[in-house]
Design a protein that fits this description.
There is one protein chain. The protein is an alpha/beta fold. It has an eleven-stranded mixed beta sheet with strand order 2-1-11-10-9-3-8-7-4-6-5. Pfam families: DUF87 (PF01935).
Length: 481
């Protein structure tokens, strides 16, 4: 079986090969500044060896998910799974020899690091009967094996560094061949970088990185300057799987592409300065307000015949003077109209002004010509109505209203839904119910809403990197979301 792949060509056009069987035993380190072609190099290597060896890619930016379009790679969305599920998936990946891309772009940095660490650790801890050969490619490795602690917690750093060290130092006996790629050698833990015997060094500009790269390539420090002059897509290679002496390699083309925006130039807009200024400032107050879904079109106007009937109806003073008038009061009618509007699933998706206008019209049509409710009172009462507090016991309803007394009306409804869920003893507010109360169908807007509520001190959020959340309302037992 031929175990070599062509990674590119040298300056004379001669093909440069990498022995994949040797690479499995000796590991690979890739360095290159942003824009040097590092991800392109990894993609070329993965594409050319896809039919030779199992591949596991730790992908923090979603650059390699397009491999699944052409090759039998399975994309695992790290944000869609819990800790236990991630570990179970890693064990099954080893058992079934599946090539996968662990996509982490949906998580924040610390969650990415913890998710990758748990996944790599589970690969490493697989039973002996599942120790099949596999490439484990870790892009942006300085995140997962940092030389010094940064903004992440020390616990997360130790967890990730331990997983990466096991991969590079002890993974070979378990069939795992680490390929780590980094923008900065100086930011990568030395015990991780030192375990690689093959190197592909791309363009870098900082002296400390050039010197370390030259040392690894066995070059004199005065020769390190040539690393700064490398073209994009060119690398200096060295190692038993590549070449015995440093060699300049121009990486070949790839069949798949990154699903990211291109960094190339494109024509600028042709709008005039005054037109652009108008575009930037148009409806700025609405854009700065908390995000809500685009409201539905206003309800169609009532027919003229009905409008004429309303005009002919008696005034409130005349209505009160009518003998035998024992019908519902103005407030009762207003409350009934409000409840009816709250029961309409489309109501939360309309703007407050449209709702208030519709409320007034329906009140007049029902005989309540003076409900005594202004715009702000309507917004708060409507929020309370759609939150479903009538399901609670009286004492719990009073507790909820007391806790929300000073909460702004635009976030009152979803906050009351969270409180009601906790008071009912449920594990979490239903996601659809929370979205409906806020008038949105966007999960991203719900996440931003929860973050905003936490910033106000109204709730406390504990996040799991698998996408789950634990919501706690101060003073009420915690509920998981």
């Amino acid at each position: 079986m031929n175990t070599e792949i062509i990674i590119g060509e040298d300056r004379t056009g001669k093909p440069i090969r990498i022995d994949m069987e040797e690479l499995l035993a000796t590991r690979l380190l890739v360095q290159g500044n942003s824009g040097s072609g590092k991800s392109h190099l990894l993609r070329r290597l993965l594409e050319e060896s896809a039919d030779m060896v199992q591949q596991v890619i730790i992908d923090p930016e979603g650059d390699f998910t397009s491999l699944a379009d052409l090759f039998p790679h399975i994309v695992i969305d790290g944000s869609a799974h819990s800790v236990g599920e991630i570990e179970a998936l890693a064990r099954r990946v080893r058992e079934h020899r599946a090539s996968v891309v662990l996509a982490l772009e949906g998580l924040d940095v610390e969650q990415q690091i913890r998710c990758a660490a748990q996944f790599i650790a589970a690969l490493f801890d697989a039973p002996r009967e599942h120790w099949f050969p596999a490439l484990v490619v870790v892009d942006e490795a300085q995140m997962f094996a940092p030389a010094v602690s940064g903004e992440i917690s020390e616990e997360t750093r130790r967890l990730s560094l331990n997983a990466m060290t096991n991969l590079m130092c002890r993974g070979r006996k378990r069939g795992l061949a680490g390929i780590v790629a980094t923008q900065r050698l100086a930011k990568l833990a030395k015990n991780v970088a030192a375990e690689a015997s093959n190197f592909l060094m791309g363009r870098t500009f900082l002296d400390i990185d050039m010197i370390r790269a030259a040392d690894l390539l066995g070059m004199e420090r005065r020769q390190a300057e040539q690393i700064r002059d490398l073209e994009r897509g060119s690398f200096l290679g060295l190692g038993p799987a590549i070449t015995r002496r440093p060699l300049s390699i121009r990486v070949g083309s790839t069949r798949t592409g990154a699903k990211t925006n291109s960094s190339g130039l494109m024509p600028l807009p042709t709008a005039k300065p005054d037109e652009m200024e108008a575009l930037l400032h148009a409806e700025l107050e609405e854009a700065a307000a908390p995000a809500v879904e685009r409201p539905l079109p206003p309800p169609p106007p009532e027919p003229i015949s009905r409008n004429m009937e309303i005009l002919d109806e008696p005034a409130p003073s005349e209505l009160a003077e009518m003998p035998g008038n024992k019908g519902p009061s103005q407030q009762d009618i207003a409350a009934e109209v409000l409840a009816k509007m709250a029961s309409d699933p489309s109501s939360p998706f309309q703007s407050s002004s449209q709702l208030f206008q519709s409320f007034q019209m329906q009140c007049r049509a029902a005989g309540a010509f003076a409900s005594g409710i202004d715009m702000e009172q309507f917004r708060r009462r409507f929020s309370i109505a759609i939150a479903g507090l009538e399901r609670l016991e009286e004492r719990h309803r009073e507790t909820a209203l007391g806790m929300a007394a000073n909460v702004e009306s635009d976030i009152l409804a979803p906050y009351l839904v969270i409180i009601r869920s906790a008071l009912e003893g449920r594990t979490a507010p239903d996601q659809d119910e929370l979205a409906a109360a806020y008038g949105t169908s966007s999960p991203g807007r719900i996440r931003r809403l929860l973050d905003h509520l936490e910033s106000l001190g109204l709730i406390v959020i504990r996040e799991e990197y698998g996408g789950g959340r634990t919501l706690m309302v101060p003073g009420i037992e915690e509920a998981s979301a």
